[in-house]
Task: inverse folding
């Protein structure tokens, strides 16, 4: 019997095994969740409501709500740049080495 763990990454590793498609899907969902959280965090740090941020970038509040939803898959680089500019931030995107199973 294997040892018990509470480490989420180890548990995911055990569940996904060598399934590259499942690993790709998990990585994509993780990225969507991180982006949504980053938008939420930077908006809160600026002390803005969703409606106020929407006005700053010339869009509507429901758009901001969707962007902050971890299940949303439509994050665009141009929208992220608009948010960064409106909040006096700089958007930084980088490529990092993969694990070899990312397709």
Result:
């Amino acid at each position: 019997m294997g040892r018990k763990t509470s480490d989420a990454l180890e548990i995911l590793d055990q569940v996904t095994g060598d399934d590259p498609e499942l690993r790709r899907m998990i990585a994509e969902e993780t990225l969507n969740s991180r982006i949504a959280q980053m938008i939420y965090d930077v908006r809160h740090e600026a002390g803005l409501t969703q409606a106020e941020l929407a006005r700053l970038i010339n869009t509507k509040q429901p758009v901001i709500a969707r962007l902050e939803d971890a299940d949303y898959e439509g994050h665009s680089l141009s929208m992220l740049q608009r948010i960064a500019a409106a909040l006096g931030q700089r958007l930084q995107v980088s490529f990092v080495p993969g694990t070899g199973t990312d397709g």
Notes: The CA atoms of residues 36 and 68 lie 4 Å apart. The domain at 19-86 is CATH 1.10.260.40 (434 Repressor (Amino-terminal Domain)). The longest helix spans residues 20-45. The chain has a mean pLDDT of 85.
